[in-house]
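User: I'm new to structure prediction. If I give you an amino acid sequence, what do you actually give back? Let's try with this one:
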Amino acid sequence: MITIRKNLMSLNPGEIIQEAPYTWVDARNINRDDITQLEEQYQISSELLADIMDQDEQARIEKEDDYVALIVRLPAMADDCKGINQYAVPLGIVLIRDTVITICQSDSIVLEDFAKNRYRQYPVQTMEGFVLSILGRAVMVYIRLLKYINRQKSQVEEQLHKSIMNYELIQLLQIQKSLTYFSTSLATNEALLERLLRTPYFRLASEEERDFLDDVITDNKQAIEMANIYSSILTGTMDAFASVIGNNMNVIMKRLTIISISLMFPTFVTGFYGMNVELPFQLNHFAWIGILAFCGTSALIGGMTLSDRRNARLVQRSVTGIRTPEKEKQRKKRKKLPLPD
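Assistant: Good question. You get back a string of structure tokens that encode the predicted 3D arrangement of the chain. For your 341 residues, that looks like this:
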């Protein structure tokens, strides 16, 4: 859908001064007819529109005869059956005389904010300032979504501490994918921002716009660092949980091996004595009582041994400072001390 808008310039959020001296053509969720209209009405090349429609297109700036075109990567969100996915989509920005054309194949939080005049503190007096405003708002949305991803990761980790399930592991994988998309998109946007400082066909009209571009570059670097840190922490977390899963599997295999060996002894004994071998007490009618007494005594001794080992482990944990269920209950009952002045 293509919408033609007039941006409003204001110093305060509620005070409108005048309309901006350019027209904003907002093209979002475009279809084949919209692409044809952009080609015919604004003479935008089909190659550029194809690049904007490419999901994997990288950020860049290029100069044509009649216009200047930029492609940036914007953050986006999507709901699916496995939760909320964060990814990035390309946004095409075309500057033609007194018109700014934004082209995006899907909806965008960033463009919606400007369509509803939510962020008028950005410099939108010129077309170049409006482009910088879009880039600055995109970085802010990146940072906000990165913080959301970090909170989501913490919630999944808490669930994994209780029980390791496939659903939580898949969620961690989705978070890792989102961080990878964001890191790549922020890196390409950084190269574009650095080029805007020295390119001759993207002229900044005032010192305010230059300072704003410097601030956007700084915020973009901060977002890159956040994405890298969160990705490194998540990688270490997934490796730790993989080690826990492997350790649990080793414990289970050890127990299954003990059970298999234990079940093998009766079969071995009955098989040995089933080969025409004389059994002790086979003529005594009360031999079964002795067998039951022997089995009961063996089970009692085995249970006492296991109980002693468990108590010894609990004592060792309490001495070394490892949390036990009893210590956890005492910790919850203990009142919090007030902070010192």
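You can read the tokens as a compact description of the fold. Here is one thing that stands out. Strands lie at 2-5, 8-9, 18-19, 23-28, 60-63, 68-80, 83-96, 99-104.
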